[in-house]
Amino acid sequence: MTSCDKKTIQDLIDGTLPWPAAKSITSSYKDDDRCDTHLQILWERVPWPEQILCPIGEHLHIVQAASGRAVRCDCGHEFGDYRQNWKLNTLVRVRGDRESIEEIYPGRYACDPEWMRIREFLCLGCYTLLGSRPLHRAFRSCSTS
Ligand SMILES: [Zn+2]
């Protein structure tokens, strides 16, 4: 079992740990308190007092709010009950032309906008990008993920 101190876990979360160390830690058996340490670090970084129950993405958590379990951004913006799709309560930006797609996938890495768009979900409180999904043109009217 690999034993990690809090600073190492912070570096792992921030992506600043050298790859060989990160690989070793993530591929090994976990410390008994790894999950609690991870949640504690995340909780120390947010401005609100409610407990983080589970991180569900970068900047996004399920928290024990006064109204019940809810999805919340690092900034404190709430997206509603954790059992509902948080993306339905975001600002949605669609990259549907070559220029906007090439801002993130330059040159030959860009998809053909005639075939695919990129839907991005942003927090209404701080405009942080919380997630993205490719969206094939043929499925644009029926996809909710
Ligand atoms: Zn936010």
UniProtKB/TrEMBL annotation:
InterPro entries, alphabetized: Aceto_COase_bsu/gsu (IPR016750)
UniProt xrefs under Pfam families: Acetone_carb_G (PF08882)
Protein name: Acetone carboxylase, gamma subunit
Organism of origin: Saccharomonospora viridis (strain ATCC 15386 / DSM 43017 / JCM 3036 / CCUG 5913 / NBRC 12207 / NCIMB 9602 / P101) (Thermoactinomyces viridis)
Lineage: Bacteria, Bacillati, Actinomycetota, Actinomycetes, Pseudonocardiales
